[in-house]
Design a protein that fits this description.
Layout: H1 4-17, H2 25-32, E1 36-39, E2 42-45, E3 49-52, E4 55-58, E5 63-65, E6 68-70, E7 75-82, E8 84-91, E9 99-101, E10 104-106, E11 111-114, E12 117-120, E13 126-129, E14 132-135, E15 139-142, E16 149-152, E17 158-161, E18 164-167, E19 171-175, E20 180-184, E21 191-192, E22 195-196, E23 201-202, E24 205-206, E25 212-215, E26 218-221, E27 227-230, E28 233-236, E29 240-243, E30 250-253, E31 259-262, E32 265-268, E33 272-276, E34 281-285, H3 289-295, E35 309-312, E36 315-318, E37 325-327, E38 330-332, E39 339-342, E40 345-348, E41 355-356, E42 362-363, E43 369-371, E44 374-376, E45 382-384, E46 387-389, E47 394-397, E48 400-403, E49 408-411, E50 414-417, E51 423-426, E52 429-432, E53 445-446, E54 449-450, E55 455-459, E56 464-468, E57 473-476, E58 479-482, E59 486-489, E60 492-495, H4 503-506, E61 513-514, H5 520-523, E62 526-535, E63 539-549, E64 554-557, E65 562-565, E66 580-583, E67 588-590, H6 597-608
Parallel strand pairs: 61-67
Antiparallel strand pairs: 1-2, 3-4, 5-6, 7-8, 9-10, 11-12, 13-14, 15-16, 17-18, 19-20, 21-22, 23-24, 25-26, 27-28, 29-30, 31-32, 33-34, 35-36, 37-38, 39-40, 41-42, 43-44, 45-46, 47-48, 49-50, 51-52, 53-54, 55-56, 57-58, 59-60, 62-63, 62-66, 63-64, 63-65, 66-67
Length: 610
């Protein structure tokens, strides 16, 4: 039995290490709708399916990429927009670590996109030279934009001069209106105005400032004085707009002088506004709620200088004891009879005793129970999603009812027996191992995904990413790196050419282990849980440490500080001071299946009990 003082100690850790925030934005909307939406007339749970252009697709953790469903944990959705949007899905590469090269995804740690072509990086500091990639540390990309050439760099002080390279210590690159040439520093071309003058550099390339521009280390032709850089190209600032975030610019034909950029689109500043969303923006009319949102902040809600008045939309009204709120230009009170404001909607002529439900719908608790938007004529009941349920006989898993029995726990919206070795719960997704032979009976979780035998899971504090295993690649946190390009220390990638490195140590992997992947024998042995106080080269200091004996469901408080010795900091995961981790004498673990320490302890004791 779990001692009461142990429960209090665990509760203290739980209270100190858990942040609770109200749902906002999309999360709030999902909660109000109980995660249910409509797809072409069919009601569905967004955790069990997705609706892509009015077609329902069953599946867990899937999203829409145009008409096609995909799982961001195992695939990437790429979009391009040329008048209309075009989308495509690249399978086998998680969206958590990828970038798009037009409609094809790639891994930016080991690859680079050069003019819509994906090529392997020849070095950690690789850049594009036309459609090819070159190593800036060892090579030069020389010549005008239309005819680039890659040269092996003679030395660190060599730079481009046309299609050739010159020694900046003894030579200069002289330019005229038509070409450039290499000359000795003591030549008349190099010696001007009592000093040395050379053609300006754009990256490693010299260029003529009268006829060309340097745009992100790329030399481009300047067609007119009005032309300016837009990413690696140019645009006419009088006739065009350069729109979009850095490294993702688009050139648009300007509709009028009143038009300005709105992400990859443009809007008329006289009649429209640019409404910013979480990751992009959209054009809306000035009278829309989005456009008026910023200007409406605090408008209609300010109090007048007279203590007994409230000002709604600039119009002061006499302050009665029950008037203390504004709804538009109408003052109303929290104690006013027959008036109720739920979710910024004013309801009038309501019955006494009514209050707002969690979803913002008025109801009378004495007459029934409202579950999400569904009213039930049975007062005093408990809700599970849109339905009422009986906690003494049922278990509620994220809005779905299941019969309650011994050892039954929730995994997302489903319930399972945690003693059943054939069932595996991965961050809210339940798998039946008897139906998945390719994973093996000792299959491990990688976030919400089940890892196949030919895959590898790279994990950090906030991400677990699945990759197809490759020779010569290793994990650095959640990144999968090519050991010919990079080394890793404490989840930080470094160039293998970076000076002052211990190559033996730097070649080690560094990733955070998961409690969820421990077998029952190891899970039920003596473990510890504590909050990181400090990390050094050879040890980790923990505070508030509990020794856990899962098999006996017991905990014991250990003295502060608790010091865990480590042989090699580079192969240790990156730990964040103030966060709580499980650990034994060898590894440090996190728990991606549970939100709180109390839930983790309850799971371990339930799993390990006879």
């Amino acid at each position: 039995m779990f001692p009461l003082w142990g429960l209090g100690f665990a509760w203290l850790i739980f209270a100190l290490t858990t942040n609770s925030e109200p749902a906002v934005g999309a999360n709030a909307t999902s909660r109000k709708d109980c995660n249910r939406k409509d797809c072409n007339g069919i009601q569905y749970d967004i955790r069990e399916a997705v609706c892509c252009e009015n077609k329902l697709h069953p599946g867990v953790s899937i999203f829409c990429c145009g008409k096609e469903p995909y799982n961001p944990g195992t695939a990437t959705c790429c979009k391009i927009r040329h008048g209309h949007s075009t989308t495509a899905v690249t399978q086998g590469l998680s969206e958590n670590v990828s970038k798009c090269c037009d409609l094809k995804a790639y891994n930016p740690v080991n690859e680079i996109c050069c003019q819509s072509t994906i090529v392997a990086k020849p070095g950690p500091m690789a850049e594009c030279c036309g459609k090819e990639a070159y190593d800036k540390d060892k090579q030069l990309c020389c010549g005008p934009t239309e005819s680039k050439m890659i040269l092996m760099r003679n030395s660190s002080h060599h730079q481009c001069c046309g299609h050739n390279q010159y020694d900046t210590e003894s030579q200069c690159c002289c330019s005229n209106e038509e070409s450039v040439e290499i000359q000795s520093k003591d030549s008349s071309c190099c010696f001007k105005d009592f000093g040395v003058s050379a053609a300006p550099l754009c990256g490693n390339t010299t260029f003529n400032i009268h006829t060309h521009l340097c745009c992100q280390s790329t030399v481009v032709t300047k067609s007119s004085p009005q032309h300016r850089c837009c990413d690696k190209g140019t645009y006419d600032m009088e006739k065009e707009l350069c729109c979009g975030p850095i490294n993702d610019k688009k050139i648009l034909k300007r509709n009028s002088t009143d038009h300005q950029c709105c992400y990859h689109d443009q809007f008329n500043t006289k009649t429209e506004c640019c409404c910013w969303k979480k990751e992009s923006a959209e054009v809306q009319l000035k009278n829309s709620s989005c456009c008026s949102e910023e200007s409406a902040v605090f408008e209609g809600q300010s109090k007048s200088k007279v203590d007994n008045q409230v000002c709604c939309d600039g119009c002061a009204s006499v302050q009665k004891p029950w008037i203390n709120q504004c709804y538009g230009d109408t003052p109303y009170g929290l104690a006013q009879r027959g008036v109720l404001c739920c979710n910024n909607i004013l309801y009038e002529n309501r019955d006494d005793g009514e209050e707002c439900s969690e979803t913002g719908i008025p109801y009378n608790p004495a007459k029934g129970t409202i579950c999400c938007s569904q009213f039930h004529g049975s007062p005093g009941k408990h809700c599970c999603g849109t339905e009422i349920y009986h906690p003494d006989a049922e278990i509620c898993c994220n809005g779905h009812r299941h019969s309650k029995s011994k050892n039954i726990h929730c995994c997302g919206i489903k319930a399972y027996n945690i003693k059943d070795p054939q069932m595996k719960c991965c961050a809210g997704t339940l798998y039946n191992l008897t139906l998945l032979d390719e994973h093996g009976q000792d299959a491990q979780c990688c976030g919400s995904l089940l890892q196949k035998q030919q895959d590898i899971c790279c994990s950090s504090e906030d991400r677990e990413v699945l990759y197809s295993a490759k020779t010569g690649f290793r994990c650095c946190g959640h990144l999968y790196f090519n050991t010919t390009l990079w080394s890793c220390c404490a989840e930080r990638l470094r160039s293998i050419h970076e000076p002052g490195q211990d190559q033996r140590k730097m070649s080690n992997e560094s990733r955070l282990q998961s409690v969820n992947n421990m077998n029952k024998t190891d899970l039920c042995k003596k473990m510890r849980i504590g909050t990181v106080e400090s990390v050094s080269l050879h040890s980790i200091v923990f505070k508030s440490v509990l020794k856990i004996r899962g098999k006996k469901a017991k905990v014991k408080a250990l003295p502060f500080p608790y010091i865990l010795k480590t042989d090699d900091r580079c192969s240790s995961p990156k730990l964040i001071p103030g966060k709580t981790y499980f650990f034994n004498k060898v590894n440090v673990f996190t728990d991606s299946n549970h939100d709180t320490v109390l839930q983790s302890l309850h799971f371990i004791f339930s799993k390990c009990s006879p």
